[in-house]
Amino acid sequence: MRYQISGRQIDIGEALQTHVKAELGEVIEKYAQRPTDAVVVFSKSAHEHVCEATIHLSTGLNAAAKGHAPEIYAAFEACRERLDKQLRRYKRRLRDHHRDRTAPVEFDGGSSYILAPTDDHEESDTATLQPIVIAEMETKIPSITVGEAVMQLELAGQKMLVFRNEGHGGVNVVYRREDGNIGWIDPRNSK
Q1: Rounded Cα–Cα distance for residues 160 and 153 (Å)
Q2: Which of 6, 132, 175, 179 has the most beta carbons within 10 angstroms of its beta carbon?
């Protein structure tokens, strides 16, 4: 298992890194039992320490949690408890959905853009109608089933997930609706 443990404008000691590796290793071995990697970032927000952790499972799922506390170890423990709770809740569903999967999930590359709106409301100039690109980055698009995409959406607490449908290879989207239900967009079925 690979760990990436870092601090945002704070120093992370060797003892904390050892503690994080031991505790996360125990949680992952208990519930996931597959090779994974974990990214843990510590930061300070006013008087509180913040711990953000993301665990990437080989099944393509990501578990993310955040913990706040006055002390750095307590912040990690709060984050670890949330990860433990997420993985415990989804253990049965993960096992049932991935029982037939023999290979890890494949990822395709894609471009992701963040667009800034313009404050100009003049419609006479077509150049002002184009938003300004303020960030361009690479994103990974998993090749998974619809059920796995819904689990990924719920597990990571995301609002939307773009994925390649394993059933037919087309790009699909699942998203959380305002009424709390899950929406699924499959352009292939729109014919």
Answers
A1: 7
A2: 175
**Backbone phi, then psi, for 189, in 5-degree steps?**
-85, 5
Retrieve residue 50's tokens.
Answer: 């913040």
Give me the domains of the chain, ranges plus CATH numbers: 2-98 (3.30.160.100), 106-190 (3.30.505.50)
Asked whether the whole model's pTM tops 0.85, one would answer no
SS3 9: coil
